[in-house]
Amino acid sequence: MAYLLEVKNLSMFYHISNNEKVRAIDNISFNIEYGETLGVVGESGCGKTSLATSLLCMPSSPGRFEGGSILFEGENIISLKEDYIRKNIRFSKISMVFQGAMNCLIPVDTIGKQMLETLNEHMSMDKIKSKNLIIEYLEYVGLSESVFNMYPHEMSGGMKQRAVIAMALFLKPKLIILDEPTTALDVIVQAQIINLLKKLKKEFNLSFIFITHDLALEYEVSDKIAVMYAGEIIELASRKNIYSNAKHPYTEKLLKATPNINSNSQTLDFIEGSPPDLTLNFTGCRFYERCDKRIDKCENVAPVIKEIENKHFCACHLRG
Ligand SMILES: Nc1ncnc2c1ncn2[C@@H]1O[C@H](COP(=O)(O)OP(=O)(O)OP(=O)(O)O)[C@@H](O)[C@H]1O
Ligand SMILES: [Mg+2]
Fold it and tell me: In 10 A of CB 259, how many CB atoms?
């Protein structure tokens, strides 16, 4: 099977001083099929945004790739020159809606002006054609032509998020990474954005990587889900298996901490403690300190992620 994206043993560390590095992405592997949505969940600081920026080959400073490959349509983009990536891959084949992007719109410029600038960075087109193209994209995401002349403060959060999604679509990418795209929105607007993404996925046969803290939301959007913990993927399976057949104690805990409006249970579980410091040299399982199912082996032997059932991957000694 030819995958749209194949990530193999990818590592990216932030070198914060001569002898200290943050292991933000540590030996991660996964793949995405054409038209498939991968959800990425995990606590704050587990490496979700670092994974996203790595896939665009632009880890933030002082991040450096330590090994592994990112095959996009079979081509290892890590080995390509920055200039080539900027012209041919980034935003044109793999696009991204950055975490908090809708709050970074320039307050003194109209949406139209900001979209024109983004468009002109990638395409040379006369003004009228550019404007018409932008209006076409505004319409794709459910915004009217009048938004072109609006300032960000005249728009609701949902409208702003639609506008930044429109910008990510400009160059007809095959994969769009959405980093917490609905976190600041109320549930009704969140639902509208999710429906918009589903519509765009169908219309353009897009693949998405959907990053969020919210497991319940992932169930709505994703075909399969990767659970990250402390720089690693510790479980990866279809959304159905993650929900009803989770194998890693961390995923089980995350599910118990997720509110379910139909449940009679009054109390939500939570995970005591916090994720480990990623500058540490880990020997055993990174979840060891917080795991209520740990066995002796977990302290000093790091579990390796394995396929424990068909397309269900898990990194836990309890699972063989
Ligand atoms: N530019 C940087 N320099 C040094 N360390 C960084 C940098 N960016 C992120 N980190 C560290 O890398 C780790 C992963 O951070 P990242 O932002 O990828 O997590 P996240 O899962 O996206 O978190 P959140 O849910 O809060 O957005 C954290 O320990 C963070 O402090
Ligand atoms: Mg993040």
Answer: 10
